[in-house]
């Protein structure tokens, strides 16, 4: 066999070099795909967190819009001793119905109220709602303790702070005000004879600050709510 014929083909060294290059290309390609997949997962988690947050704030806004004063022991909006937000609201109506716009005879449950509680438990923002009732006793009981296990509204919530807005002056002079801590003396102290409640005395507005540390949302988020027909 001639020398020219013996020199055709690849040597072992050339094969090893080619295999190494192919392995490097495959590894770089895999890292690129893995990075794209991780980015898509991160975006999906953020979108899920943003959707949860939006739905939770919509529900809270609906609860506050339906808040109803039922006496000194059942203020429309108050805080529990552990920082939970308590709302006494009109019974939720299906399909967004509003009893204030009801025509004709009111339904038999028109006077029923329910106590809604918002609080942080184990890194989640939960919402509890008591059974609707026209009697004060079950509503007072719901003010002191959560009703059931609660529904998870937002994952990754590790802290919650509430401030209330107080108008200054009386009548036409009430053109300004300030955000105050409902537990301070500036906001009137405790509610009635119940040391577990810090009364908000139907403020003009509510400011909610959430500390988030979840897979989708991080940092602090603040929302303000105007309380309809409040003082």
Structure in words:
- The protein has one domain (47-96, 109-226).
- The chain contains three helices and ten strands, in the order ααββββαββββββ.
- The chain has helices at 3-6, 12-65, 136-144, and strands spanning 77-80, 85-90, 113-121, 124-129, 151-155, 157-168, 176-180, 197-199, 205-213, 218-226.
- The longest helix is centred in the first third of the chain and has 54 residues, at 12-65.
Could you outline the blueprint of secondary structure elements for this entry?
Elements: H1 3-6, H2 12-65, E1 77-80, E2 85-90, E3 113-121, E4 124-129, H3 136-144, E5 151-155, E6 157-168, E7 176-180, E8 197-199, E9 205-213, E10 218-226
Antiparallel strand pairs: 1-2, 1-8, 2-3, 3-4, 4-5, 6-7, 6-9, 9-10
Share of helix, binned = 25-40%
Shape: elongated
Distance between the termini: 107 Å
Note the run of SSEs as H and E: HHEEEEHEEEEEE
Radius of gyration: 30 Å
Task: Write down how many β-strands occur, each being a DSSP E stretch of 2 or more residues.
Answer: 10
Low-confidence stretches: 99-109, 185-197
**Global structural class:** alpha+beta
The fraction of residues assigned to DSSP E strands is 25-35%
What count of helical segments does DSSP give? 3
Q: What does the largest sheet look like? A: 6 strands, antiparallel
Mean pLDDT: 77
**Largest sheet: spatial strand order:** 5-4-3-2-1-8
Total number of distinct structural domains: 1
